[in-house]
Amino acid sequence: MNHPAFNGHGIWAIYRFEMTRFGRTLFQSLIAPVLSTSLYFVVFGAAIGTRMSAMSGVSYGAFIVPGLIMLTLLSEGTSNASLGIYFPKFTGTIYEILSAPMSYLEIVLAYVGAAVTKAILLGLVILATATPFVTIHILHPVWMIAFLLLTSVTFSLFGFIIGIWANGFEQLSIFPMLVMTPLTFLGGAFYSIDMLPSMWRTVTLFNPVVYLINGFRWSFYGASDVSVAMSLAMTVGFMVICLLAIGWIFKTGYRLKN
Is 28 exposed, middle or buried (0-12, 13-18, 19+ CB in 10 A)? Predict the structure, then answer.
């Protein structure tokens, strides 16, 4: 079948459908993160933060803001993209999408674009929620936006892969639960890895989430536990790996056509 040069209508149709689904679950999509973030600041920022010294020259409450935003980007980008592509597989409408006059790139753009929009929106909501609790300074706003976009796109692509790989709702949730959550909480979201003993700090450096969180934190406060160039390289490298994996999936039809 010959596809049009660029099927903007098809991309917009899928994107709008995904965003409409997001709107129907607005309470758990927006209100729940606001409430959980407020609790983080009450518990970690007020109760614990007042007993901790400043980290990287900022208060503990301000220090955890980039980590909380990054936690949201990672979890929401992954879950939204995986659910978005899994439901057509579950209902059988994936065959209609694959036979539509859309290229594989356009399909990915639609689903990943919607997941990225949701993740960034929630990340900005977390940032706005944090503002009444702590004083936030963004020293490098351009780099903050760059890391925000790169991380959202990367983990939305990763979620897209999980959604195609999963054969059931159990598989859809098991990888984020058993792998992503531990990596994120051990990635320095709530502490500086310089606080760890030498051996554990070395082990932590093998956690890719450390580089994502620290690069994003650097854009706020100009301080990072690892090289910012390495943070950027790790993010871009993981995104390239995800793109190559998705290309292979569509080329072979892995868990799509068979």
Answer: exposed
